[in-house]
Amino acid sequence: MTAQTSRAANDISSPNDLEAWWLPFTANRSFKQRPRMIARAKGMYYYTPDGREVIDGAAGLWCCNAGHNRDEITAAIQAQAQELDYSPAFQFGHKGGFAIASRIAQLAPGDLNHVFFCNSGSEAVDTALKVALAYWNVRGQGSKTRLIGRERGYHGVGFGGISVGGIVKNRQFFGTLLAGVDHLPHTYNREQQAFTKGEPEWGAHLADELERIVTLHDASTIAAVIVEPMAGSTGVIPAPKGYLQRLRQICDKHGILLIFDEVITGFGRLGTAFAAERYGVVPDMITFAKGVNSGTVPMGGVVVREGLYNTFMKGPEHMIELFHGYTYSGHPLACAAALAAQDIYRDEKLFERAKTLEPVWADAIHSLKGQPNVLDIRTVGLVGAIDLASRPDAVGARAFEAMDRAFNEYGLMMRVTGDTIALSPPLIVTEEEIGEIVDKLAKVIRAVA
Predict the structure, then answer these.
(1) What is the value of pTM for the model shown?
(2) Burial 426-447 (b: 16+ CB within 10 A, else e)
(3) Is residue 7 pLDDT above 80, yes or no?
């Protein structure tokens, strides 16, 4: 059957044409030969079309922090759709947007009091970068245009995000990207940090590389530094002890904005509402997405400090202060889902639960040390990574096979980057389910040895 005839026959409830959907960040040809299909989800588990149970070791894509198909969130979305399906955020508002903005601001540390909504982590990053550039223009310091990211950083897939990001494959095919961007070195050193639980002791000094960059470019040209408190997508690299505090000190010294990309670490992943709280650092902006409504409806945003926001609130009151936004900023359904998710996080104390489970999780994941081809293990909060030795003829092939066999043969969903396995279960995970994840992963690692 040709693709054309297949599509003509595809007007039925069960898809029979896999060609039309170009899947993101996916080996499409391999997938379409051996599809990993998901039909439904509940709690800690996904279910395949034939009813097979798959434990979710990745919280979807780092996002389903409250677990899957929570009745409270589903009911909130349904009720909102019946009352107000869409409301424009340009010159108009609705109560749900103001309510969830207030809740998020209450969770953020210090004077991070104002929330600008968008629809994804990628949009959140580009928003934060634009706010930083606009801020210095409004302040009369328009020469501060340079943005500083970090090697191995992931900040989404917008042109701003991949410019400050530091993952090669995300950058190499898309031209010169934004001009005037520089990068700090990444903070991972296997020789110094192997098999670390929590924040590594070694590496705080790497923040001092920002001083070198300031010397090279001069602070008068640098608008902002953006880092992940834990670099997630590159393979789980926790910040070394003292590193983020040192970045804050250097940024304060030179008048540079500091942005924490908390798209992954926000909403309990590291045992606090935001990682900024865990590390005792108040950045100038925090980006968020994913866990804000447990991954149910696309939503992201940026939390900004009081003084930064107030800088824009000048001039004629009828004039727009920031020429930026999205059609779906603060979408009513996303806001309703987020309010319901925040209620779950609060009522079930899921952030505190993640903190309590962190040592249990760390011990369980580190028990895989000594399994075939395991080179390193890293854990922080309810996140873990296992580096596998690459096959001589195919970097990434071992972890890819592990991901595929985990889903199809062992009933485990996990993330892989190169030859690194990444785990980040929903925050509702039990000690018994942690044991299930680790037992299945041990079998997978041996199967691909």
Answers:
(1) 0.96
(2) bbbbeeebbebbbebbbebbee
(3) no
